[in-house]
Design a protein that fits this description.
The protein contains 9 helices and 7 strands. The protein is an alpha+beta fold and about 280 residues long. The relative contact order is 0.13.
Length: about 280
Amino acid sequence: LDSVNKRMRSANLDGCIYFDFFSSESISVDFIMYLIAIIKNTKRLAALRIVCEGNFPKNQDARKVFEMSGFYNYVSSSKPVSNSFDENKRVSITRGDLADPQLVGSICDFVHTATGTGRLDTKRLFRLLIEMMTNVAQHAYKDLTRMSSSWYIFVSDTPDGVRFVFLDTGLGIPQTIRMNWIEKITSLFDKSDAHFIASALKGDFRTETESFHRGKGLPEIYSCAQDGQFKRFNVVSGRGLCEVLDNGDVDERKLASALNGTLYSWVLQKDYVEVIEHE
């Protein structure tokens, strides 16, 4: 990420950035989603009319991840792209700026099919996804961000559960907290990005407006991980990574490269979906 950010800062008017994936042997949907956001949301690229180009990975497995994720819905390709993937097994990467109840409803229907459950079982999930999308539209400090504010979501049916990846291209949790609390607690600047993420998950930075990062949203989604509904729940923002462990503890890690915005990923356990019915 640091090399990509450096290249974007150095690119000139009407310049070109080339992404070379030919030797890549392993690619994740998380990475592809962030790559799309870099291409589509980075303000400097749009302002300077900088063009992004790239190539296919030689490795077939890596290439398949590009194809099945929906990456080619956002870029043009001179080579044919396979469209042989089972649409019933995934919701391709989708982008939006406002809350989209129709999309969230279709995602919940996808969960129903994958888990054999009904509408009542996804009431909590529906509310969480709407709140995450709404938070993007209501971001403060939009003028300070490197990317325009959008959300991206990907959902897939896997053997161990329904996997979600959600990207918020706003300012990011650590940066937002620092901006909101700068006049109250200057010592917050000594804390790590992972510390801020963990504290926000636990509800330590609630505000009167109860906005998502510091209010109801993160603690509620954290509770889903604590009670076992969500497994492998991770939040990446800035240079911080937090993973909720099986016992509910939060593992905090510092990253070498900074991620602009906030990336969430989790697996909804099929055996735990019925718990949501009573929320």
